[in-house]
Every structure is written in structure tokens, then in C-alpha cells.
Amino acid sequence: MFKYIIVGAGLAGSVMAERIASQLGERVLVVERRRHVGGNCYDEVDDNGILVHRYGPHILHTDSEEVFHYLSGFSEWREYQHRVLGFIDGAKVPLPFNLNSLRMLLPQSLAERLEEKLVGRYGFGARVPILELRESGDPDIEFLADYVYRKVFLNYTRKQWGLKPEEMDPEVTGRVPVVLSRDDRYFTDRYQAVPRDGYTAMVERMLDHPCIKLMLNTSHHEVLELRDGQIHFMGSEFRGKVIFTGKIDELFGYRYGELPYRSLDLQFESADTEWFQEVATVNYPNDYDFTRITEFKHLHPTDSRRTTLLREYPCTHIDGENEACYPVFTDETRAKYERYLELAREFEDLILVGRLAEYRYYDMDDIVLRALQVFEERIL
Ligand code: UDP
Q1: CATH code at 221?
Q2: Any idea where the UDP-galactopyranose mutase C-terminal domain is (predicted)?
Q3: What is the pLDDT of residue 18?
Q4: What is the structure's pLDDT at 15?
Q5: Which residues lie closer than 8 Å to 201 by C-beta, 6 or more apart?
Q6: I need a labelling partner for 33 at 20 to 30 A (CA). Which of 115, 166, 182, 196 fits?
Q7: Residue 258 gets which letter from DSSP?
Q8: Could you tell me the distance, in angstroms and rounded to a whole number, from the CA of residue 157 to the centre of ligand 1?
Q9: Of all atoms in ligand 1, which is nearest to the CA of residue 160?
Q10: What residues have CB less than 8 Å from 253, skipping those under 6 apart?
Q11: Total domain count, the chain
Q12: Contact between residue 130 and residue 177 where contact means Cβ atoms under 8 Å apart
């Protein structure tokens, strides 16, 4: 019999399953609704022979040695530094907006004056969130902040979230600060790499353990039921632990209404050209309805004469129709999440982990770290 049941074979569920199996030697059942493992970092080789991320680009970057070391047990790496350009006023400039972007877009004398002011005030290398830069109190800096706000953030954020930047939790736009350096990389973390054979292969290796039984194409509703403070598995009371990584509102039948998510309409295109763009991702803050185009060949080069592109069109998440990608935090949605947490607390052996179950904008490295921590705190 199983002592642990895990709902979801994304990164959170797979790390938990791997730890329980390899460290405790206990039997784990993993149920996954989709036909594949890996959750939203699932990748596969397409008709062009190019490894593509089916749920949108996933770029692993971390400062955590623990995370990188742990994942290295399941994958070899290809070193890769992510670069993003923003299509602004007909030019493609580095994002996050930095001192090079400034020089490319504004007249030289103005750019030099602004650079001196910014560096004098915040220091060379500083990373300043756009919402903070707008409050600087200095007219020159506020001029620049307003420019970057309009050219980079306002319409991208409207497309991505249906909201203005100032209506969002500052944590969201703070992910892409204005950077006072000439480093054109999107991330500056110590470890930046793509799994050599992709994320799916990495997750498959995590789950490849005699103590782990994986059931694909299986909804948790088919095997689990929560009622009267008890968890039931296939009709009988279950005395082990359930680790749930899916949507918490769905788990409790949307009793308090839905927790909102943004989703993506992902349009893949095969182009008859060797390369389409200079870097893996080009953001389109103002033009077009999509937010960005990713060309996957930059992540995993092949000798294919064609290339595969992905355009992302953000949209509202509708259960059963598209995937829940990004939690939309507001005071109201956080309060609603808290109410669901109250319900979850009635089940002592129910553990919630991951972007959906915790309603957090976790990056991949955050999820791995979180799962390792939950394993130590709640399972060991
Ligand atoms: N953002 C923006 N313009 C950009 C890039 C990002 O306004 O060109 C804002 C937007 O609100 C976005 C957030 O910063 O949702 C975080 O961007 P990130 O690239 O981290 O998003 P992800 O890759 O997770 O979709």
C-alpha cells in the first residue's frame, strides 16, 4: 500500500516524490491529470527537430547551490545565459532596461546626463523597480522613469495581466527592474543553464524509482475524496499523507469562488528560415497583441534548416479550457486564498506545495527549494 499520494507530476510533485522514495524508501503514488509529467515546464522535440517548451519558455536560473546541486543529480547541463530584447520605437534594446538600452533610445547628451544622475543616486549596478523609480522626487529621473514605464511596462502589463503596473503587487513588475549596468543578460544568478536533454527528461529521471508509481491521465477526483476531516483513497479511509500541487480552489469544489489566474494562448509557428531573431526572446510591450516571441533554437541549438517560434497571447484562465499559469494577486484574491487554506487545515495530513496549491508566483528554482524544505519540515 502507499503511504504517500502526490497529486501532480510537475516540479513540486516530482521533487517530493523523489525525496520520499530515495530518502525514506516509502512507496509513493503520483497521480497526474495530463498525459505527461513535468507540469508547465514540459518540453518535447517538435517536427523541426527542435526542443520546445509546450507551455511557454521556462528558463532555469538560481543563486541556490542547493537547488542546482540537487537538480544536477538528474540532468547534465548546457550553459545558457538568457537574453531578452524589447521592441521599442522600432529598435530592439536589452531588457531589463539598462544603461545600454538608455543609450540606444535617447539622444546621447540626454542619455549621458541621465546615466550620471541615476548612477550618482542609486550606484552603478543597482537594480531599481520601476514603481520605485517613478517616486524618486528628481525631475530628470522621473522623466526617465515615466519613459520606461510607458515604453516597457504599461502595455506589456496590461496585456499580460489586464491591469496597470501600479494595480499589481509590486513583486510582479519588480521581477524586471531597471538595471544600472551594461550587463545585457536577463538574469544575473550564479547558475544559469538548460537541462541538456530538456526538463521532461530531467523530471522523468526523478520519477524513475521502484518506489514511485505514476498514473498519468488520472484526475485526483478519480482516486481521492476529502470529507469530514478525512481523506479517502479509492473509497477507503487513507491514513498516509497527501501532497497536493494542483489548484486549491478546485480541490474544494470552488466553494468560495474561483481564484483568478492568467493563462496563455500559445501559438507555435514553424518558419522556413534558419534563424528568425537575435536572441531567444523578444518582448513586444507596445506593438501587437502578443507579449513576446520565443525562438527555441537559441536554447537548444540544432542543425535544422527551419526554426520554431512561439507567440504568447495572454488571456483569462477558464477551468477546463486552458491552463492556469499565473496567479493574479490582489488583496481580495489573497483573502480568498486564506479562506481556502482554512479549509485545508481541517485535514492534518494534507500538504500543499507549488505555484497552484500555494497561489504564489514561484519560479522553477523557488519550487524546487520549497519542495525540499517541505520534505524536511513535514515529511522527515
Ligand atoms: N514586464 C513588463 N514588460 C516587459 C517585461 C516584463 O511590463 O518587457 C512586467 C510584466 O508585468 C510581467 C512582469 O514584469 O508580467 C514579470 O516579467 P517576467 O519576464 O518575469 O515574466 P514571466 O517570464 O514569468 O512571464
Answers
A1: 3.40.50.720
A2: 151-361
A3: 99
A4: 99
A5: 75, 195
A6: 196
A7: P
A8: 7
A9: 15
A10: none
A11: 2
A12: yes
